[in-house]
Design a protein that fits this description.
By secondary structure, this protein is α/β, with parallel strands linked by helices. The protein contains 9 helices and 15 strands. The longest helix is centred in the N-terminal third of the chain and has 20 residues. The chain starts with a strand and ends with a helix.
Length: 304
């Protein structure tokens, strides 16, 4: 049985990928700090407790793996607004150490969860994988740098890799809890508590949203194709404004959701939608959950 290590395997995306790989017959190990109990539901997953910045712990976890899926990010777009140093120290440098260990231990393939919502910058049309990467935030710059280093390791060491440029995922964690980040999660929490929501700008910022279950199925298809490499956008291919998301949550929950507006940080992307034709051409057109249905499903399952 082939072995896979999911780095960040107890996070929002990572735990879903752990479950998907286990369903697909992989022997899965999940590397994470595990500040909470395991969030994945698959049985037989080996829990590897460790710190991403620890070279020794990463080396031990990576040794003997056929596939490494790198989902871990120690920062978020909002947490890097103060400058790039935190992102470099917490994400970029440990990732470079990890990639070096992948080469040293002859890992067959590396899949990196990048950020389709930040690496292209603001684009007034659907962003294609061949477009220039023009990130404007430290978070996006860090993701783009890791992508380039993956290309370097491919040239220098013939390491096979895939870059998943993921849109804005939403939905529940595998343990049916809400993630602690993301617009949809924040709105649903406010709807439940009757709180006020903070809107950056006038609500016209546009993002590409994808339900976590749809994203996980797409990742499963990519993992199952060992010949696929390079970058691929994973999103809905449709843009939705912040104001529309707020109105959708109001409609689904019946909550008033009073809005408090604040200025948009200068390094926030104004408009980003992903061109998903590359995935469709290779793997077929995915069946995607509509935004309203996905938010309604998330709301109902979370309340239960």
């Amino acid at each position: 049985m082939a072995r896979a290590l999911v780095v960040g395997g107890n996070g929002f995306i990572g735990a879903h990928i752990v479950d998907q790989l286990a369903r697909d017959g992989w022997e899965v190990e999940a590397f994470d700090r595990f500040s909470s109990g395991p969030r994945y539901t698959a049985e037989g997953v080996r829990q590897v407790v460790g710190t991403f910045s620890s070279g020794d712990e990463m080396r031990q976890a990576i040794t003997g793996q056929d596939l490494v899926v790198h989902c871990l990010s120690a920062t978020t777009p909002s947490k890097t607004l103060g400058g790039p140093q935190a992102d470099i120290e917490a994400n970029l440098l440990p990732t470079l150490h990890m990639l070096g260990q992948c080469v040293a231990t002859s890992v067959g393939r590396v899949i990196f969860v990048s950020s389709g919502g930040t690496v292209y910058g603001s684009v007034d049309r659907a962003a294609h994988e061949d477009d220039a990467l023009l990130p404007i935030s430290p978070y996006g710059i860090g993701k783009a740098a890791i992508e380039r280093y993956l290309a370097y390791y491919g040239i220098e060491h013939d390491m096979s890799s895939v870059v998943l440029r993921v849109a804005n995922p939403y939905g529940l964690r595998t343990d049916r809890s809400l993630p602690g980040f993301g617009l949809v999660s924040a709105l649903l929490r406010a709807a439940q508590s009757g709180g006020t929501i903070t809107q950056l700008g006038d609500g016209s910022m546009v993002r590409d949203y994808i339900h976590i279950d749809d994203l996980t199925h797409m990742v499963g298809a990519i993992v199952a194709d060992p010949m696929f490499s390079g970058a691929v956008n994973l999103g809905s291919g449709s843009g939705t404004s912040v104001a529309t998301i707020i109105d959708t949550v109001r409609s689904v929950t019946g909550a008033e959701l009073p809005v408090e507006s604040r200025p948009v940080p200068p390094s926030f992307v104004e408009h980003i939608v992903l061109d998903t034709a590359r995935f469709a051409e290779r793997f077929g057109t995915p069946r995607l959950t509509t935004l309203e249905a996905g938010i309604a499903q998330t709301w109902e399952e979370w309340r239960q």
